[in-house]
Amino acid sequence: MFGKHIELFKLLGFKVRVDLSWTIIAVLIVWSLSVGFFPLQIEGLDTQTYWIMGIVGAAGLFVSIVAHELAHSVVARQYGLHMKGITLFIFGGIAEMPDDPPTPKAEFMMAIAGPISSMIIAALFYGIYAAGTAIGTPGPVNAVVMYVAIINGLLAAFNTVPAFPLDGGRVLRSVLWWVKGNLRWATRVSSNVGTGFGVFLIFLGILSVITGNIIGGIWWFLIGMFLYNAAAMSYRQLVTRRALEGEPVSRFMSADPVTVSPEMTISEVVEDYVYRHHHKMYPVVSDDNTVSGCITIGQIKEVPKAEWDTKRVQDIASACGPDNTVHPRTDAIQALSIMNQTGKSRLMVMEDDALVGILSLKDLMDFLSLRIELDI
After folding, report:
1. Contact call for residues 167 and 115 (beta carbons, < 8 A)
2. Contact 148/203 with Cβ under 8 angstroms?
3. 107 and 174 in contact (C-beta within 8 Å)?
4. Alpha carbon distance, N-terminus to C-terminus of the chain
5. Domains in the chain with CATH codes
6. In this structure, are residues 176 and 169 in contact, taking their beta carbons and an 8 Å threshold?
7. Rounded mean pLDDT of the chain?
8. Three-state DSSP class for residue 178
9. Structure pTM?
10. Paired residues of 318 in beta bridges
């Protein structure tokens, strides 16, 4: 779901990060508020004032989203769920939860916490707006306060739509889970609603563009695409976690791994191993079965082709760090997480400093495909 992100600060023990995609949306929000929204609310102000209002309004949106996701995180922690943190991305934010809620009640309480917090903030800022109007607070200040009230109301309303993975969709999933006692079935149903709602927004966006509302139409289209993909991804993640969780790496690893000798030339590795086995990483194993490092396609590419016949594996091999290795008893879902974080498709399975196998992403995906086909 995310690309590169930057950690901003910690709040109540939770890391607050911003995905680089959010910087794009932040600029667009400031621009749209400064040249569109606020000039329509208050006419006759100078350009600098409108831009200041736009920046403050965007900051209000930022704080509102953090508060919304913080409410989810605080309630989740009350139910014993470990939260990785809060990340703001292009269409809002998410409280990162690596595990599924333990019970339907935990899911329900965690889901409704976000919209409730947004409604409270909306009511609070509307009260400030009303008081400011009564005592004569400057118009630009009142306009920004009213914007924060409106945006929190919209944030609460949009998130209550029963389309997974929106908060309303999570409420729907918790109810279905409670009724039938089957989290996978509940996720499949609520995800289907989510993809359907995504298709509706995509259609609405196209219709808006056709009728002349180009900017609004593009936004509806993009949000629809995001929800459509997020709903489908959420179900796949649940299926993956349920299929692999609790399974040791030893069940999937190849116990006869392809290795190379440190004395081999780069040319021999390429001709006899890379072109034959098509792997991107090879363990380097000495004659006494000691693992001395790893060699990757990336390292080979850095060596000029003219030197392939003289350069040896030991000259370019690197140490195998923790992001390259797992233990045979490591949970398969943890190994998959390492692959996702590092971008590596093969991991060395080590026990007592000895290489006992290789775990490949293909082996995990083949097993997962069979589980899904059998609908286990």
Report:
1. yes
2. no
3. yes
4. 26
5. 5-160 (no CATH), 249-374 (3.10.580.10)
6. no
7. 83
8. helix
9. 0.69
10. 294
